[in-house]
Design goal:
Blueprint: E1 2-6, H1 11-24, E2 28-30, H2 41-53, E3 59-64, H3 68-75, E4 82-84, H4 88-98, E5 102-106, H5 112-124, H6 131-141
Parallel strand pairs: 1-2, 1-3, 3-5, 4-5
């Protein structure tokens, strides 16, 4: 199950991603926003991140105009590793090396076609483990300080 969330600036991209996930048979939960009325991205990105951190959703995708605000918000939730993505290589490597459980994108930065490709790469790439596991554990240890 994928947690999805956006603000008003990325509503149309979120709707395109929902349709794309449906066509691929990927289950999702939509945490809002549900229209293009001005809103505050932390309300939605935070709810999606909590769902991932609590295990209600396996991974999450959060969106705003730049992707920056939602990625910062998601990374404030304990247990979240959210990467801001705008290219395919980063989408692949952040899963292989960092075991990211959330990704963020900016609707004003990434076009719809590229965004859908990034989603596909990110969702289909597995964590490599090995030496990367040690590094992820060191990264996450900072939450305990």
């Amino acid at each position: 199950m994928i947690a999805l969330a956006c603000d008003h600036g990325a509503y149309l991209l979120k709707e395109a991603i929902k349709q794309h996930l449906e066509e691929k048979g990927v289950a999702y939960e939509d945490f809002g926003t549900y229209n293009q009325d001005s809103c505050d991205y932390p309300d939605y990105a935070g709810a999606a991140a909590k769902a991932v951190a609590q295990g209600r959703c396996d991974r999450g995708i959060v969106l705003c105009t730049t992707g920056i605000g939602v990625s910062i918000t998601a990374n404030k939730v304990k247990g979240i590793r959210c990467a801001l993505l705008s290219d395919l290589m980063s989408a692949r490597l952040t899963r292989q090396h960092n075991d990211t459980n959330m990704m963020a994108m900016g609707a004003g930065v990434v076009g719809e076609k590229l965004a859908l490709e990034i989603v596909d790469v990110w969702l289909s790439t597995e964590f490599e483990g090995g030496r990367h596991q040690r590094r992820v554990e060191k990264m996450m240890a900072y939450e305990q300080e």
